[in-house]
Design a protein that fits this description.
Strand content: under 5%
Helix content: over 70%
Low-confidence stretches: 13-18
Order of helices and strands: HHHHHHHHH
Largest sheet: none
Number of strands: 0
Length: 185
């Protein structure tokens, strides 16, 4: 009985009818990947503070985008879709990380690679380190607003928060960031 229900559902699914020839679709997806990969990786890196997790987050976002591309009504919204997927995947990664840490004794993960340290100047390092001390929502809003340069309306659409919540969260995050940086001297 359960198999019949599953088969019925599968038969009723809308089948993919490519709006583009397979070669054109592949080229369009390749172009989107090349155009947005670095920006999405930077966004993920700022949200999860771990290069390997950031790469996984972005890979999962592009894999989901690949699956959803045929049903994407407006291909111009690719960046919005990818940004939303990266944000959601980063949240999931952080949630999984918190769950794992609840069962495994926490260890010091503050050490960064020599390559990442060399890439950041001292002031930028201090700001990035301070950002990672903020609560998740505040960190997300700051990264989207000031590193991704999104408007409040875009952040509202992406996170599902009310516009006033985005504004107040950004304000509180900046105040908290200032306090953290001042405490460090």
């Amino acid at each position: 009985m359960e198999h019949e229900t599953t088969l019925t559902r599968l038969r009723n699914l809308r089948r993919w009818e490519p709006a583009q020839a397979p070669g054109e679709r592949t080229q369009a997806l390749t172009d989107i990947f090349q155009q947005h990969r670095v920006g999405m990786l930077r966004l993920a890196r700022l949200l999860v503070d771990d290069q390997q997790s950031a790469e996984d987050v972005v890979q999962d976002a592009f894999a989901g985008f690949y699956r959803a591309y045929a049903g994407l009504i407006d291909p111009a919204k690719a960046q919005t879709y990818l940004r939303s997927a990266v944000l959601n995947n980063a949240r999931s990664a952080l949630r999984r990380r918190r769950t794992a840490r609840a069962y495994i004794p926490p260890h010091d993960v503050t050490a960064r690679s020599a390559e990442s340290m060399a890439m950041l100047d001292l002031e930028h390092q201090a700001v990035v380190n301070a950002i990672h001390e903020l609560p998740d929502r505040q960190r997300e809003v700051l990264v989207l607003r000031y590193y991704e340069d999104l408007s409040e309306a875009e952040i509202t659409e992406l996170t599902g928060l009310a516009r006033g919540t985005v504004k107040s969260t950004a304000s509180r995050a900046l105040d908290a960031l200032e306090r953290i940086l001042a405490a460090r001297g």
